[in-house]
Specification:
heterodimer; A: alpha/beta; 5-stranded parallel sheet; 5 strands; globular; B: alpha/beta; 12-stranded mixed sheet; two-stranded antiparallel sheet; 10 helices; 14 strands
């Protein structure tokens, strides 16, 4: 079993994308984590500025936040009057989504709770969701994707050597939320996304979650099973839904003091939530993906981003973060257990699985993908954009 | 104990033996039940006999590799060799349904070889217009000449260590167990009877045990959350179960 050795990576120019190793002076983001990282003359990474900017623009604390939240809640309530549900929200059993459900209850909202079961739920996640439902009295809807299909999709992503295997789950959740929102005539999607605990996310680590085209292309190339129940929408369709149906996603956590530690103790106390250790470790696959696949195959230790965001927000110190990074990402015994479990569940031979961890990364963009954002991809078009807008208006 | 139904390698749950809904990957479900410290689990492949297929030995092996709970397995068991292979692959008990109707001698030979405790006779029945519990074979599709009581007696005579009594009309309805039949059967045979079909909560378990059930089984209650029949595996915790035990 290959393992992640940060010290060795520091001295490997390839792992640092051809640059000498460098770490941000304020946070723990570094050249191993991200080929696109830049530093200013004081050695502060670009992420610091990005965080500050995002926080300034999108996060509203104190009185201002309270007022904004009240306005939003009133709007959701008035638009949802006489409807069975006034909003919809997805739960995974993790901290963010559980906290959103709790806040929705306290704010007097009536969400439909949606869970996506991809065959990898842990017992803890299940129990946490059960407790949310029991303690809030909200209705639950579960999308169970056919395991044969989902396994085939995941196998295809392994064979393609692309980084964002979780895009499959994230995409399916988003599709399900949209689909149900439309079915139940709901306008608001409560999102657990937030600036203060997860703003930093290098592009190198992920791929667009609304890019159904990329999923289909990768599956076309490496998949073996026909997809019947797995939901995919193109990015274009998402835009259409937003425009035609007025669907919108609201990030309520940005309107309050969102402190992870405090949130955890609040949901433990009020909803009987159980900690599973590690961010997003609610699913066995996610645990293995973040704890083993990302670091070992892709040189990505996601904790660097989570910890750095919390440092920027003043929720913890760099010293503490460095100490945390010294610890194994997760329990080595459990990791070995997961390694075999994941291998068997996905149906790979020992050799196939070992070779996967040796094979080089392939970019998502080498498969067909959504190129709708032409303004970004082709700077020349930027000149034409204002004109195009006028034409559209006239039409 | 949970009863899980397998069809095409996927887990399904029925209502009155119809309208099967896909509820996920059996291996993961078993893993979750295992972590919830479930005492025992019953897994039935509902297609094996109808399709005249042999039991899914591989699946049993995989499941047993993921769990420490005793597993009772049914579906397609026709011979002593089938049973032997399943037991070697990790199953603790063998559930027989079609074979009980077609070739009950198999029960005798399994019981002789591996002990009565390793054989569970499964009986599916519907209550007729006149209130008689009539046994149905092949997933409730074929009416037989037997009543539940007659067949239960016969199964016990052949050496079944337990009898699983499954009320088709109540399957997936949350209406509670068929206590009447349960009482009649359990008071007439010497082996423990497992009640199945209709459970919606712990109160139903209590009632069933009071009416003579040796054990209680449920499907929907452990895999669904109402009102949207949202799939979510749950199981009463030890505190709730202890409370129930104290009452009995």
């Amino acid at each position: 079993m290959k393992s992640y050795n940060e010290e060795a990576l520091k001295n490997d120019p390839k792992a640092n994308f051809g640059r000498p190793y460098k770490q941000c002076t304020i946070s723990v983001m570094d050249t191993i984590a991200d080929p696109d990282i830049t530093f200013d003359e004081k050695g502060v990474s670009n992420y610091y500025k990005e965080f500050k900017k995002a926080k300034e623009q999108n996060v509203f604390n104190g009185e201002k936040g309270k007022q904004k939240l009240v306005d939003l809640v009133n709007q959701i309530k008035s638009k949802g009057k006489n409807k069975k549900y006034d909003c919809i929200t997805g739960v995974s059993g993790g901290v963010d989504s559980t906290y959103v459900a709790l806040k929705a209850k306290e704010l007097g909202l009536r969400p439909l709770i949606v869970h996506f079961d991809n065959g990898w739920n842990s017992e803890t996640a299940n129990k946490n969701i059960e407790n949310i439902i029991k303690n809030t009295g909200f209705d639950l809807y579960t999308l169970v994707v056919d395991w044969n299909e989902f396994r085939d999709l995941q196998r295809a992503y392994f064979k393609a050597n692309v980084v964002d295997i979780e895009a499959l789950t994230d995409h399916a959740i988003i599709c399900t939320l949209y689909k149900l929102a439309i079915e139940h005539n709901i306008e608001f999607i409560l999102s657990g996304a937030n600036v203060v605990t997860e703003q930093i996310l290098p592009r190198h680590w992920i791929w667009g979650k609304t890019d159904g085209k990329n999923i289909q292309a990768i599956h076309q190339e490496y998949g073996e099973v026909k997809l019947k129940t797995f939901p995919t929408y193109s990015a274009f369709k998402f835009e259409l839904f937003k425009k035609r149906k007025g669907l919108r996603s609201v990030r309520i956590l940005d309107y309050m003091e969102y402190n992870k530690k405090q949130a955890k103790s609040e949901i433990q106390e009020k909803l009987g939530w159980k900690d599973y250790g590690g961010k997003h470790f609610e699913s066995v696959f996610t645990r293995f993906y973040q704890g083993y696949i990302l670091p070992v195959k892709f040189g990505i230790d996601k904790r660097k981003a989570h910890l750095s965001t919390l440092i920027f927000d003043g929720q913890l110190t760099k010293e503490y973060a460095l100490e945390q990074l010294q610890l194994p990402i997760y329990d080595p015994d459990l990791m070995r257990e997961d390694y075999e479990f994941v291998r068997k569940k996905l149906g790979f031979s020992e050799e196939e699985f070992m070779n996967y961890f040796k094979a080089p990364r392939v970019e998502h963009s080498s498969f067909e993908h959504d190129k709708r954002n032409i303004w970004e991809n082709y700077p020349l078009f930027k000149v034409v954009k204002p004109l195009w807008k006028i034409i559209k208006k006239v039409k | 104990m949970p009863v899980l139904l397998i069809r095409n390698d996927g887990l399904v749950k029925s209502v009155q033996f119809k309208k099967h809904k896909y509820v996920g990957d059996p291996i993961n479900a078993v893993k979750i039940f295992n972590e919830k410290e479930v005492d025992e689990i019953i897994i039935l492949d509902i297609d094996a006999s109808a399709k005249k297929e042999a039991p899914n030995f591989k699946l049993v092996e995989k499941i047993c590799g993921e769990s420490f709970m005793p597993l009772a397995y049914g579906g397609g068991v026709k011979t002593l060799e089938d049973a032997q292979k399943l037991l070697y692959n990790g199953a603790e008990k063998i559930v027989l349904n079609t074979s009980l109707l077609e070739q009950p001698k198999v029960i005798e030979s399994i019981a002789k070889q591996f002990g009565n405790q390793s054989v569970v006779a499964s009986i599916d029945y519907r209550t007729s217009l006149f209130g008689k519990p009539k046994v149905y074979g092949f997933n409730g599709s074929k009416k037989t000449k037997w009543t539940a009581l007659e067949l239960a007696k016969k199964a016990a005579d052949y050496g079944a260590g337990e009898i699983m009594l499954n009320a088709i009309d109540r399957d997936g309805t949350y209406k509670g167990y068929d206590l009447e039949t349960l009482k009649t059967v359990s008071s007439s045979v010497d082996v423990p009877v497992i009640a199945c079909g209709g459970a919606s909560g712990l109160e139903d378990f209590e009632e069933a045990i009071k009416h003579g059930a040796g054990a209680v089984a449920a499907g929907s209650m452990f895999v669904f959350q109402r009102p949207h029949q949202a799939v979510l595996i749950s199981y009463p915790n030890s505190v709730e179960l202890n409370k129930l035990n104290e009452k009995l």
